[in-house]
Write a structure and sequence with these properties.
Structural class: mainly alpha
Strand content: under 5%
Number of strands: 0
Length: 181
């Protein structure tokens, strides 16, 4: 779990810092502090997808081990188990292409109807985490990325379609990022 936090929190803080530098101002630095906290929360809350996996696939060995640790009230060990065996969890709903597409109208709604920067930060932090993981997997393990993104879709997706999808989602994310504030 410590690895997860230490590898994702700096990404959230850098993202929030870049937006603060370009969009913020010292007159609203408290609001941007809330934005940074929201982005960090959004990045970290995506870990709950791994917990949801244990309920979606209760017969999997990792799910059974997680439940055993949880019942023993060894919460830290249970969460660390999910992080250390993350490669076994391929079918994560919140990291699928379907969720990414659904995120666009939800983010639009949140960005246009939420006055505070904390809520906007949470929404943007979710997609920041998903896209960062997706681009990292595209570089290192494209086959795993393909399974992660398109396991819900019952048709063959070509490598070019996958790249177009990632570029489109990244472009939307950047546009929404400049809209924040």
């Amino acid at each position: 779990m410590k690895r997860y936090v230490l590898s994702h929190v700096p990404m959230a803080i850098i993202y929030a810092g870049v937006l603060f530098a370009f969009k913020g101002g010292w007159s609203n630095w408290v609001g941007w502090g809330w934005f940074a906290l929201g982005v960090t929360t959004g990045v970290l809350v995506l870990f709950l997808d791994r917990v949801a996996f244990t309920y979606s696939y209760p017969g999997a060995q990792i799910s059974q081990q997680f439940m055993w640790y949880w019942k023993q009230k060894k919460y830290g060990t249970a969460l660390s188990l999910l992080d250390s065996r993350r490669l076994e969890q391929e079918r994560l709903v919140f990291r699928s292409a379907l969720f990414m597409v659904m995120w666009v109208p939800l983010a639009f709604f949140a960005l246009t109807s939420t006055g505070g920067l904390f809520g906007k930060g949470v929404v943007m932090g979710l997609m920041l985490h998903i896209l960062a993981d997706a681009w990292r997997l595209q570089q290192t393990e494209p086959r795993r990325l393909h399974i992660r993104l398109f396991w819900i879709i019952k048709r063959v997706i070509s490598e070019e379609e996958r790249l177009v999808f990632l570029w489109v989602m990244s472009t939307i994310f950047v546009l929404f990022s400049w809209w924040v504030g």
